[in-house]
Design goal:
It is a single chain. The chain folds into two domains: about 130 residues, TATA-Binding Protein (2-Layer Sandwich); about 70 residues. The protein is built from seven helices and seven strands, in the order H-H-E-H-E-E-E-E-H-H-H-H-E-E. The relative contact order is 0.14.
Amino acid sequence: MILIANLTMATPENKSKKGETLRAWFDFVFGFKNKSGEVLDHWVAFHDSFNYSPQEFYDAIGKELESRKVPGLEIAQEEFAEGGLLSDKRIYLRLIRERLIIYTCAAKFGTGYFFSCRTVHVPALVRLWHILAALLFFGVVGSLLVKPLGVTFAVIAMIALMFALAGVLGNAATAPLSDLDTLLLKIPAVGTIYEDWFRADSYYRQDTRLIYLQKIPALIKLLAEEITAEKGAKLEDQYERASIFGELYQRVPPRKTEPEK
């Protein structure tokens, strides 16, 4: 009896897996946008007595990135609520390149001031409505071909069209930074299917992705340190997200700057 009870008892791991499976199915059926993502990196720098205009900080980042001409980078500002729907909102600077988003914030916290930067990866996930939209497209095209070609030849034409489109998407995926690749990514539904199922993850994309993940957050931190130094302050308290084998957040010493000669 004890053995049977132990076997039938649900463990927390099983409950967690079931919850993740149900959530994945719910997102697949009812989800329309891939809003959530995985936080890859996050740092916060704080000074106890400091004040600065967030917009000036964001403008400084924009000018620096514009001079560097980072390919495929989109810069915008986005509001995030501090808590619930009726809470105050904070403006974050959003940097998007492919499926990697960098959010940075500069804001007061009591008598102090903080700069933060987090890198989020939002994967391209095909939802049910993407598949339904594709089936609707082929259904409309097939219905238009039935009258001039007949049912048999219309089916053959639709199969040929599917293979032709798959070939085009596959070839577009192997051409890095091509105009067709950029165009396909901007088409609703088609862009997600193309990116999730056909777009090649080449060595070039992996290399440039790593450069983006390392250099842009480091640049933002350097600008924050330069701005505080100009005001006679110094970012003393800095926190970074540690690796998965360490603590979630750990305090790190401030960046040491070499004295001017």
